[in-house]
Design brief:
With 159 residues, this protein is mainly β. The chain contains one helix and seven strands; from the N terminus they run ββββαβββ.
């Protein structure tokens, strides 16, 4: 079993990754329904209820991505979100003028991915004096995640 470096796991939205991501997280959870009764004695018992999922991404500011996210949030648009290991990490070798190392043609997702529809529940911008501007975005899943589904995914802005 090989460990996976964090930079090899990315969120993909629509046709690409969220550019300049510094971290991402995905949370999948289920509600527990208490089914304890006198027959369970002193032990509790539960049954799985509804499953929910959400994802967050922290990014260096890229105006095109930020504005497309804000527009989608304001309009209530459902976005297609995927999380996956990248399938072409070995191809990322030459830094661009800003030091970013992106494979020619952008990042692609591996086949071991989960895809689902989501709404954007929050987005926050931080722009401190003398610091790089950043933003954080939170997605809430709408419906099921599908394992192994495909999504056209390349690096850079997704608009």
């Amino acid at each position: 079993m090989a460990n996976i470096m964090g930079e090899n796991v990315q969120l993909f939205m629509g046709g690409g990754t969220l550019a300049c991501a510094t971290s991402c997280s995905v949370d999948i959870s289920s509600d527990d329904i208490d089914v304890s009764c006198k027959d369970t004695g002193k032990w509790g018992a539960t049954k799985r209820g509804k499953i929910t999922w959400s994802a967050t991404s922290d990014n260096l500011m890229v105006v095109a991505d930020y504005t497309s996210l804000v527009d989608a949030m304001i309009s209530g648009e459902l976005v297609t979100l995927a999380f996956s290991t990248v399938g072409n990490a070995a191809a990322a070798t030459t830094p661009d003028a800003e030091g970013h190392v992106v494979p020619s043609g952008g990042w692609t997702a591996s086949g071991d991915m989960y895809v689902g529809k989501a709404t954007i529940s929050s987005i926050s911008l931080s722009a401190g004096n003398g610091e790089l501007a950043t933003y954080s975005v939170t997605f809430n899943g709408v419906g099921a995640l599908t394992k192994g589904a495909t999504i056209a995914a390349t690096s850079g802005t997704n608009s």
